Amino acid sequence: MTRRRPPLALLLPALLTVAGVLLPLVYLLIRALGAEGTELREIVFRSRNLELLANTLLLTVGTLVTTTLVALPLAYLAARTDLRPRRALMLAGVLPLAIPGYVGAYAMIAASGPGGTIEALTGLNWPGPNGFTGALGILTLFTFPYLFLNLHAALRAQDPALEDAARLLGRTPAQTFREVTLPYLRPAWLSGALLIALHVLGDFSVVSLMRYPTFSAAIYQQYTAAYDRVYSAWLALGLLLVTGAALVLEARLMRGLHLARVSPGGAREVRTTRLGRARPLAWAFVAALVGAALIVPLGTIAYWLRLETNPFAWTSLWDALKSALGAAAIAAVTTTALAFPLAYIGSRAQGRLARFTERAAYLGYATPPLAFALALVFFSLKVAPPLYQTFPLLILAYTLHFVAEAVGPIRTSLNTATPRLEEAARLLGQTSRGALARVTLPLIRPGLLVSAAFVFLSVLKELPLTLLLAPIGFETLARNVWAYTEEAQYAAAAPYALALALSGAVLTLLILRRERRPAPRPPRPPKEQA
């Protein structure tokens, strides 16, 4: 059932969501252009801007290269080889996603240098991560799962007949991989690479701890330390331009890709590659990755945790955990509720309005969180000052920023749910709202739960929005990890870091388990009303 026009009851909340995303960004532009001519020229043509741009682009491109070098071999080992157990390989590729980058940075800093965990346990003074290489290494370890998941799914789905045809034409295994497999992985790589690029462009915590200046780090410093709101607004606009360029580049690279099978026959099962003598090398690679991304961070947190002797630490931890879980739960509900109209319009309606509504909502997620938070700060101070630094504004920021993240699983569920069931319900006397409530919503319940879980996990780890928008006295796990790490109080930060890592791991495992379940059977059409 495809509609030309979206239903009004769903179109109104969708348009309000789009307005909520666009209005703060429009005000950010107005704020940036509010400077006088002399000041404006001095801000725009600062040499510092070119340095920040170069650093930001270098880190983004470098992270894409290194995450590919990590994710592609691991995805191939898990999807195409006889290396077992496969579940352990999947966990190695997914669990680092549960550890926020700033927690990983805290753990690496606390493990190295004089008095660090490595020196305390082994006597070796391991050099601490710093600068470009430090930021590159940490971002690689904790963002490569975005690429791993996409590449693994693509490798499992590829029809082996394509590779067999290349081998019959005389291609070597290496040539077949380069000329057949890699081009097939291009869409999966582009999707994962876009997520990683957006994450790196928006990150300020890792680069700040590593003392590597980028746009995001400069925005935070200008707003919180220098109180230069005009320059910080211009930096935010510069970061938005870079993000927009990344989105346009990804769209152009995806244009014209047609990798669907032409033959109507069913695809065969993917052939398993026997590693043979390369098995020890493969296990060494997996062990090194697990050690760097999981064992070292968690071990460091455990080491510093036993040094925490403050009797009030656990009470403070419980308060921060309750605040973080409460905010994440509320944001998960509100975000999922707003994502449903967007997903329904995108899957059931046609026309320019439907396309604009769905795509405009993604702008909130594509906008780096620090720039988005700054836009909301300026907007609230000008339009609704009592809203500034309140809990509702924080929830609003979470909702608008992560609503696009929640749209995907819901739209996937809607695409697999046949609209004919809604038509049958209408023929049996149900209204549009009744068919939606009694047929569609029960059918897409798994998608709603996955969307809520995604948002819950993202809000739990979110730092920039919380730092700039949270009410005074509102403490969360992420905020306390950041505050104590900045002051080099590693023992004090350990309880909050451990709670974040464990909470993220539990949610990640639940999401994976939910997504592996088979799709539910469609509900029976409602009986005809008397």
What would your notes on this structure say?
By secondary structure, the protein is an all-alpha fold. The protein has 24 helices and no strands.
Structure at a glance:
The protein is mostly helical. Helix content is 75%, strand content 0%.
Number of strands: 0
Give the end-to-end Cα distance, rounded to a whole number of Å.
Answer: 26 Å
Largest sheet: none
Tell me, rounded to a whole number, the average pLDDT. Answer: 82
The proportion of strand residues reads: under 5%
Rg: 24 Å
Order of helices and strands: HHHHHHHHHHHHHHHHHHHHHHHH
Q: What class, by secondary structure content?
A: mainly alpha
Number of helices: 24
Uncertain regions spanning at least 5 consecutive residues: 262-266, 519-523
The share of residues in helices is: over 70%
Shape: globular
Task: Provide keyphrases for this structure.
mainly alpha; globular
Write the layout of secondary structure elements.
Elements: H1 8-32, H2 37-44, H3 47-80, H4 86-94, H5 101-111, H6 117-122, H7 131-157, H8 160-168, H9 173-184, H10 186-202, H11 205-209, H12 215-226, H13 229-254, H14 279-305, H15 313-348, H16 352-366, H17 369-383, H18 391-416, H19 420-427, H20 432-443, H21 445-461, H22 464-469, H23 477-486, H24 490-516
Helix pairs in contact: 1-13, 1-15, 1-16, 1-17, 3-4, 3-7, 3-10, 5-7, 5-14, 5-24, 7-10, 8-9, 10-13, 12-13, 13-17, 14-24, 15-16, 15-18, 15-21, 15-24, 16-18, 18-21, 19-20, 21-24, 23-24
